[in-house]
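Reviewers of the previous submission asked for a worked example of the structure-prediction workflow described in the proposal, so we include one complete record here. The input consisted solely of the amino acid sequence. No template or homolog information was supplied to the procedure at any stage.
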Amino acid sequence: MGKGATVKGILIDDLKKLQIPLPPLTEQRRIAAILDKADTLRRKAQQALNLTDDLIRSTFLDMFGDPVTNPKGWPMVRLGDMITEIRAGKSVGGEQRQRAKDEWAVLKISAVTSGRFLPHEHKVVNDPPAEETLVRPKKGDLIFSRANTRELVAAMAIVEENTEGLFLPDKLWTIETNPKQLRKEYLKYLMADPLFRSKFATLATGTSGSMLNVSQKKLIQYEIPTPDPKLQDAFADFTWGVFKTRNRLAAQCNESDATFEAALQRAFMAGL
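From that input alone, the workflow returned the following structure tokens.
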């Protein structure tokens, strides 16, 4: 019904002539009530999922205090004294689409920008480098973004599940630490604190305001508050417990979304 050469539009008169199936008002109310209940369940599941990150952040502050002011007086230690290995990925081009089961894909910076590891943020590589040269993310890895805007540079994410067919670009690193001194879970949420990360971001260099870089040399020279290892262990265990709960809530969100969509289909295609 749209008219127009480039941008099509519908005339009001044509819209007024459109006929729609119109159930009795009582049936419309019944359909609306069912959809409201399904939507409420969906929104509650999403709210619970969103609260998991807040729970981890608030627990971090309760256990360790503000990382900028360091009110608990944790000793300041160079990252280089606690990092055992930094591995950088490879710079390769790719195609903007989701990989098939037998394809390789390189991660994008956006795979860690949000603070959560998002494996679907990738580009398909038709001619990947030799497999033994690739840095492949695995469960428990801490991934660091060395390049981004000043607000997003130095973002970190923990890989929560093993992945297949993915590898890191040169702008992403995996960081291994000595767990007797520094737990990766603590370091990730230390860098997730907005004020602490903004302070760290001053290490980033570059002439472009849209893409700054942090060098390995500057990273390892940076000092951070380093709590008692046993307290870090307790926080790491708590974090993985929340990850497990979050995965369960995510599954519930997917199920509630599917239930809502099914209810919509039934309401408007066949009636409830």
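The chain has a mean pLDDT of 90. We consider this example representative of the routine output the project will generate in years two and three.
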